[in-house]
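Review form for a predicted model. The reviewer records the input and the model, then writes brief findings.
Reviewer: anonymous (R2)
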Amino acid sequence: MSPELRPWPKTVTVAITGASGSAYGLKLVECLIASGARVYLLVSQAAQVVLRMEAGIEAPSQPAEAERFFSARFQAADGQLRVFGRQQWTAPVASGSNPADAMVICPCTTGTVGRIAAGLSSTLIERAADVALKERRPLILVVRETPFSSIHLENMLRLSNSGAVIMPASPGFYGNPSSLSDIVDFMAARVLDHLGVQHGLTQRWGA
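Model under review:
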């Protein structure tokens, strides 16, 4: 069966921007691939720098090379993980006629928040988010910044009022995490919950 015709149960666009916390995005992609979902992966130029600094990952700049790299890293099936360039306007996510089921920007810079809130689409990440909003598809922004200025808060409120889910990277500690991996898992689990994707990353409250 052709990869494009394979009946993926869910297609999720994951964008990794230049905020600190690249491990959150990597874990999310790993879990989505393991669940059988198809992933459209978008990586900003700044995110490539952060991936190198935080995870020791030299992500290729060319989409085709990056697709092979990340597909191998996450053991994705043929066609399960697609990578698109920052100005690749022919990508499915650039049009409301072929949107993904949901989009997550993880981690999300406050600059990205501001541009989406203003309706700007200078990159594919911003355009894909704009499409998600106008098509009323789930859009989750895992914002990583502290403290927030009034401008940041106003932009997030504007997006929340437009239907986006604002999910700051604020892991909980009631599960008594014993490692950095546990903290990353907490945030990935919260995103997966909102996407309706089953997982066993964390223990449920009260369970």
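Findings: The first helix runs from residue 22 to 35.
Further findings: The mean pLDDT is 95.
Recommendation: see findings above.
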